[in-house]
C-alpha cells in the first residue's frame, strides 16, 4: 500500500466511524420517543447496542458502507412520526407561547407601589 492509499483508507474509515456514531445516537434518541417507560427504553437501548456490536469487527470498507446505508434506510423507515420535543426548544409546546405583541400596542404594567 502506498502512502496516499493508506491515507485515503484511514480517512474513509474515520468518515465511516462518524456516520455509524451519528446513526447510533439518532436511533438511540428515537428509541426514547417510542418507549413509554424508562425500563422499556433501557431494554430497547440494550437491544440496539447489541445490533451495532455484532458488526463491530467488520473490516471491509465496501461492506461497512453498505451496512451503514441499510441502517440509515431502516432508521428512516422506523423513525417516530411525532417525536418528543422539549418544551423550550423550537417546535416544543412552550416555544413562543407568549409571542411579542404587535407593533403599535403599548404595554402598561399596573403595579401597586407603596411610597411610604
UniProtKB/TrEMBL annotation:
<keyword id="KW-0496">Mitochondrion</keyword>
<keyword id="KW-0999">Mitochondrion inner membrane</keyword>
<dbReference type="Pfam" id="PF05347">
    <property type="entry name" value="Complex1_LYR"/>
</dbReference>
<dbReference type="GO" id="GO:0005743">
    <property type="term" value="C:mitochondrial inner membrane"/>
</dbReference>
<feature type="domain" description="Complex 1 LYR protein">
    <location>
        <begin position="19"/>
        <end position="74"/>
    </location>
</feature>
<dbReference type="InterPro" id="IPR033034">
    <property type="entry name" value="NDUFB9"/>
</dbReference>
<dbReference type="GO" id="GO:0006120">
    <property type="term" value="P:mitochondrial electron transport, NADH to ubiquinone"/>
</dbReference>
<keyword id="KW-0249">Electron transport</keyword>
<keyword id="KW-0007">Acetylation</keyword>
<keyword id="KW-0813">Transport</keyword>
<dbReference type="InterPro" id="IPR008011">
    <property type="entry name" value="Complex1_LYR_dom"/>
</dbReference>
<protein>
    <recommendedName>
        <fullName>NADH dehydrogenase [ubiquinone] 1 beta subcomplex subunit 9</fullName>
    </recommendedName>
</protein>
<comment type="function">
    <text>Accessory subunit of the mitochondrial membrane respiratory chain NADH dehydrogenase (Complex I), that is believed to be not involved in catalysis. Complex I functions in the transfer of electrons from NADH to the respiratory chain. The immediate electron acceptor for the enzyme is believed to be ubiquinone.</text>
</comment>
<dbReference type="InterPro" id="IPR045292">
    <property type="entry name" value="Complex1_LYR_NDUFB9_LYRM3"/>
</dbReference>
<keyword id="KW-0472">Membrane</keyword>
<keyword id="KW-0597">Phosphoprotein</keyword>
<comment type="subunit">
    <text>Mammalian complex I is composed of 45 different subunits.</text>
</comment>
<keyword id="KW-0679">Respiratory chain</keyword>
<comment type="similarity">
    <text>Belongs to the complex I LYR family.</text>
</comment>
Amino acid at each position: 500500500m502506498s502512502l496516499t492509499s493508506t491515507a485515503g483508507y484511514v480517512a474513509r474509515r474515520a468518515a465511516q466511524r462518524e456516520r455509524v456514531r451519528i446513526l447510533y445516537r439518532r436511533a438511540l434518541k428515537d428509541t426514547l420517543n417510542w418507549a413509554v417507560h424508562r425500563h422499556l427504553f433501557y431494554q430497547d437501548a440494550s437491544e440496539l447496542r447489541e445490533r451495532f456490536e455484532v458488526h463491530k469487527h467488520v473490516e471491509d470498507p465496501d461492506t461497512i458502507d453498505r451496512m451503514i446505508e441499510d441502517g440509515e434506510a431502516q432508521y428512516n423507515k422506523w423513525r417516530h412520526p411525532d417525536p418528543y420535543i422539549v418544551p423550550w426548544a423550537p417546535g416544543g409546546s412552550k416555544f413562543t407561547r407568549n409571542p411579542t405583541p404587535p407593533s403599535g400596542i403599548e404595554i402598561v404594567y399596573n403595579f401597586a407601589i407603596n411610597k411610604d
